[in-house]
Design a protein that fits this description.
Length: 292
């Protein structure tokens, strides 16, 4: 925990993330504010630019008051938003209103003109990744070939998908809710990319295996809002392709670290849950929740 006395009065640590980021509340010139320190190497100017990008969005961010370096760590100070996060307030919001909030967030994600060069680089990098499974000789190579063939056959579904510039971690905990106003927080992961790739984990974890109907409605609204209610059927292939690639990335990463035990653990879990791959669409039941 950093001594923030030189920056804020009455500073209180409210969160310490796994990435090394520390978050505080405190007083700056008598005003309650929010302070976030970033892990080493973070480009604070790039983060300032992201905040500026959101100023023209329907879903704005807290106002930036100050940035700088303290104890060799970059930091940003923003206005403090009362009311709590959307996650904390879900129980007090009607389900229909939650769906509308999701739509508004989805519509606020900026679409970017198609970039064929981006697709080519995206395709090449993901195929190179999954093909590295062949280096892990003790894996079932028949299943390895099935995975590679699956990604090779579905990655083309991204070719006609619009790029977007948006939040890197869409979830209820990353939006503040104050008397009906929605503000995006924790936006430093905002970047360019394919929509289905950016939301893959949250849609899978918080919709398909959902514990809360209200969170499910938020994500449904979010996806519907981005696509203006006209979700392309190719979204299914894109989404499932991203899930497979992400898990292979974890396996290859552990292999590079020499962690054979973890490789075997992840491989067993994946093959039990996902294979045979041609049954994925049925098991994820897209038609029941996304295209209804």
């Amino acid at each position: 925990m950093l001594d923030t006395g030189e920056l804020l009065q009455d500073a209180e640590l409210i969160q310490k993330g796994v990435s090394g980021a520390e978050c505080y509340t405190g007083l700056l010139g008598g005003q309650k504010v929010f302070l976030k320190f970033f892990e080493d190497g973070t480009d604070i100017r790039a983060i300032e630019k992201i905040y500026l990008e959101y100023t023209d969005s329907d879903i704005r961010t807290p106002k930036v008051l100050k940035t700088g370096v303290f104890n060799n760590k970059n930091y940003i100070i923003t206005e403090f938003i009362p009311g709590g996060t959307l996650k904390e307030n879900l129980g007090n919001i009607k389900t229909d209103d939650i769906y509308k909030i999701g739509c508004d967030i989805g519509k606020s994600v900026k679409k970017v003109p198609d970039d064929k060069l981006f697709f080519q680089k995206f395709k090449e990098s993901k195929l190179e990744l999954v093909r590295r499974l062949r280096e892990i000789k003790h894996l079932d190579q028949i299943k390895v070939s099935e995975i590679i063939n699956y990604v090779e056959g579905t990655i083309g579904s991204f070719q006609d998908e619009s790029l977007c510039y948006g939040h890197g971690d869409i979830k209820p905990a990353n939006f503040m809710y104050n008397n009906g106003d929605i503000l995006a927080i924790d936006i430093d992961g905002t970047s360019f990319g394919y929509f289905s790739w950016k939301v893959r984990g949250n849609v899978a974890l918080d919709v398909i295996s959902e514990k809360s109907d209200k969170t499910k409605m938020l994500y449904l609204g979010f996806v519907h809002g981005f696509y203006d209610g006209k979700i392309p059927t190719s979204y299914q292939d894109q989404f499932l392709c991203t899930r497979v690639i992400e898990r292979m990335w974890n396996i290859v990463r552990d292999f590079d670290k020499g962690n054979v035990e973890k490789v075997n653990e992840r491989w067993a879990r994946f093959t039990d849950m996902y294979m045979p791959l041609d049954t994925l669409k049925t098991r994820y039941e897209f038609e029941k929740w996304l295209f209804a």
